Amino acid sequence: MNGEWDDETAGPGRVVVGVSGDSLASLAALRVAAREARGSGRTLVAVLAWEPPEGEALYLRHPDPAWAAHWRGVARERLAGAFDEVFGGGPPGVVAERRLVRGRPGPALCRVASRPEDLLVVGVWRGGRWPGRVRRYAEAHAACPVLAVPAPPEPVALRRALRRARPADFALRP
User: Which of 127, 128, 145, 158 is the most buried (most CB within 10 A)?
Assistant: First the structure.
């Protein structure tokens, strides 16, 4: 997994999925993408886009290859963790590639899903500061169809319990 994309090595019609590894929408998208790939006989390409936490602009002012290598390793662990969480390893019955791409998620996904016969799958979480930002970018710039997968709703009992929670409920107990 070199983080690069190569149109020469991939077969026609891949299912490309954006994976963050830390959201329910991302995990749901990975599950749906594997089902789409299995049903159509296409290769699943799971992409985790990453950047140094301080951002590329600051990193370019003070480059540190060891620091970048550390964060690339963290990204690799998040991608592996997503596969473990969803499939317990690799998806059954699907040829899967895992790719790390350094860059913003929207542009990185559109670069990988660059052919009209590809399918780009993105998870959509309807909360947060920028709901659907990657989806909107993909829909505006992708060269292929985009499938948006919503995050599963939280169980009602969990939402009620969290509303009643107090800070003391989260304190470490001896």
Answer: 145
CATH code for the part of the protein at 15-170 = 3.40.50.12370
DSSP string, the chain: --S---TTTSPSS-EEEE--SSSHHHHHHHHHHHHHHHHHTPPEEEEEEE--TT-HHHHHHS--HHHHHHHHHHHHHHHHHHHHHHHSSSPTT--EEEEEEES-HHHHHHHHS-STT-EEEEEE-S-SSSTTHHHHHHHHH-SS-EEEEEPPPPPHHHHHHHHH--GGGGS---
| Domain range summary for the chain, segments of one domain joined by + | 15-170
Higher pLDDT: 17 or 57? It is 17
pTM: 0.78
Question: Which whole number is the average pLDDT over 102-127?
Answer: 91
